Amino acid sequence: MRIHIATIAIAGLALAGAARAEGPDFEKEIWPFVKNSCVKCHQPPHKDERGRTRKPKADLVITNKADFLKGGEDGEVIKAGNPKESSFLQRTLLDMSSDDHMPPEGKADEWTDEQKKLFEAWIQAGADFGKWERDPEVDLKDE
Ligand code: HEC
Predict the structure, then answer these.
(1) Residue range 55-73, pLDDT digits in tens
(2) Is 66 among the domain residues?
(3) C-alpha–C-alpha distance, residues 84 and 88, integer Å
């Protein structure tokens, strides 16, 4: 019996190690703060409450995996394994005085330092979206 318990414990440790190597879970740990701070201006074209069509800023749509990976006007915004080349992270790290800082000052919640580190760790670990594709039923303009 002792041996069995030890085996289970070792298997458990191995699993925990594997989970860490994969980095943060996109849907659970990353998407909530991305959604909160960035989706408002980077979602598919839609009509606002006054009936005007709103286009995604810089042609960047992040509400589904394919468009997120495709990037915006300037191309890819996430480079797996390379946080320094990932403008989606780098723009949040820029000084507030920079015009390129995201989100634009006062327009949405800043990412906290902890969230920036999580996002960096997620890119570093390969930018794996897991099962996340998008929430098709959700009315995106409310996100
Ligand atoms: C209030 C609207 C608004 C919000 C909120 C917002 N953005 Fe932007 N974003 C813009 C505008 C406007 C541009 C185009 C001007 C520019 O490039 O700075 C842009 C451009 C970008 C680009 C450049 C894409 C390209 O290919 O040129 C990236 C990357 C980006 N945003 C990331 C983010 C991130 C990350 C967040 C959340 C932390 C965010 N944005 C939140 C308005 C917004």
Answers:
(1) 999 999 999 999 999 999 9
(2) yes
(3) 10
Q: How many domains does the structure of the chain reveal?
A: 1
- Residues 6-23 have pLDDT tens digits of 665 655 555 555 544 679
Q: How far is the CA of 60 from the centre of ligand 1 (A)?
A: 8
CA distance 64 to 61: 7
Nearest CA to ligand 1 atom 35: 88
Domain presence at residue 28:
yes
Query: Is the beta carbon of 58 within 6 A of some atom in ligand 1?
Result: yes
- The residue range of the domain holding 118 is 24-142
SS3 15: helix
Question: Is 2 within the bounds of a domain?
Answer: no
